[in-house]
Request: fold
Amino acid sequence: MPSPFPGMNPYLEHPDFWQETHNRLIVAIADYIMPQIRPKYEIAIEKRIYQIDDTNDNNDDSLLVGIPDVAIKRQPNTPDVPIGSVAIATLTVPTTVKVPAPEKIKQTYLEVREMATRQVVTAIEILSPVNKRSGDGRITYLKKRQSILGSLTHLVEIDLLRKGEPMPVLNNSIQSDYRVLVSRSNRRPLAELYAFNLGDSLPVFLLPLREEDVEPIVNLPELFAGVYDRAGYDYRIDYNRDPIPSLSEQKLVWAKELLQATGLRDN
Reply:
């Protein structure tokens, strides 16, 4: 069964589903684009690692990027200590406490590279919550974003999350639930913004490449429908519950009526 929503499904923004949706959509875009750009280009799935520290009271992100797993090295055995020389003591009873455990978040993105030069021609980003809330996660991503915008690399930025602060554009009066930004290096500071809301269709747009190339179409509605179907979200999502993050009262009424009409929510 297809998604009951005409565009973005707000239930997939739930933390239980979003990371999977993000990764599946990344792979779907890569598989969809590759036949259209070969053999001149390759498309690579890259990864960033964010380490979130939950000791931060204001819920900001304290993170390390690209830090590998800790390696524990075996040290040479120390000389045996005679048993008779070890003092016998009564162990003190400790209090059980919990310590903060940093959460490691892996975020994937795409790079379209020219095969002959290995140069990154286009970067494709799908935003995650860590990019949209205040803290080091957002700061780190904004630095990378600014670096791309100051280079010859095109940027495609897909934001399918209502919660959090949108990525900055100079025309801050534009308000929307979701957006896709296509920034072509040869047109900056101008860029193409596809702003859409819950209830609107997902956009179909061209992927920027070299000026002499035919640009492939990115059919986001088709890709999203495939992800929804292959993931089995039609039977994994409980539509009798309200979406998380929450909707405004008006949009929640609309969503309930839509789900009731399709038989996915009780009246």
